[in-house]
Fold CarboxypepD_reg-like domain-containing protein.
Amino acid sequence: MDAKINTLLRFCFSVWFLTFLMASPVTAKSLPAENDGDPYQSFKGRVINSVTENPIQSAHINVKGTTISTISNVDGEFSLKLPADMQDALISISALGYQTKELQLDYFKRDNVIIAMQESVQELAEVNVYTKGDATALVRKMMYNRDENYVSDEALMTAFYRETIKKGSRNISLSEAVAELHKQPYFSSKDDDIAILKARKSTDYKRLDTVALKLRGGPFNTLYIDVMKYPQFLFDTDKLGLYSFEYAEPTKIGERTLYVVDFKQRNREKPWYFGKLFIDSKSYTLVKAVYNLNTDNRRAASRMFTSKKPNGVKVYPDNVQYQVDYRENNGKWFYGYGKADLEFVVNWKHKIFNSRYKVHSEMAITEWEVANIIVPHNEEFIKPAIVMVDDIDGFADVDFWGSNNIIEPDKSIQNAIEKIQKKITD
């Protein structure tokens, strides 16, 4: 693997003593002031399985006929903000393995909104015919059709990014941002750019003992999971021979039937990838990918992820998981959501117990438009080496995000936010 992959795609952590230098804060782009005469309306709800009543994570909530959307969190909860003059909106809720649901906006104008999703009934006759074929050929066709299936124009995307670091079960760091993505066409070799619109952070270094774990890359860690834009970071067409592909049971999103392909890297001497691809059975579009990095080779995994650490400590990733979801608009697909989770072990010499850190980062596209992007010379893009806990500054009240759609925090993050805000007001 080359240096770019190690630096940009995979998490690059620095475990430092607390005597570090703070970097200069990132300057966010200027946003239009909230207009009191043009307010927005906000709705909340929870997406659950209609039978088990378990929460459904990563359900996409989209305002039909627009590019406004959000996503449900680990508790199935979501919030959605719309312009006040949008009264007759139709809201679409979709999730892998479930029938898509469409509800009028009036449904959300109540307390305790629950959206119960029914699991899709599989009709496998059509799919089983293809599963007798070669799964590698299907993946090759998926890659070949990339330029036709995905957005072929430059686009301006608004996204919400969250990054949390936990030591054990305690939140020790929280960074959040509304970002603007300058997304290049999928056939283009140009990399995407990111500018920060709004951001806030809080870090409790007192809970870190003698080391501080920091995530380098910020939103780029979730952006580079877009394997159709950056296939070189997982498997490009000329690298398919390095993997084995096998069919699994097909599934659905709404009425859309998906092939499911399990994949594994053949060479397992070093950390290797394995996971699932969810491919549309008609257009051969990658709709979703969920994959892991096997880190049984601790020495090699540590070299991949750790850029700096104290003497006398062993640091290695113990669990690495990625997810990318694509969404469709007018027959073209685009990056909609990226998530990365990593569990990190810090083992001190001569100490009986080790420390475990969990790093979670996710980014959801909340609005976008196709546009010829003319980048001003003074555009302040963040760099792929950004460290959010150092390079942004400050926290704010509950109304900080204004009319921006965000990912609702899960219960543990919400508790941490409430504690931070309580400290600010005390």
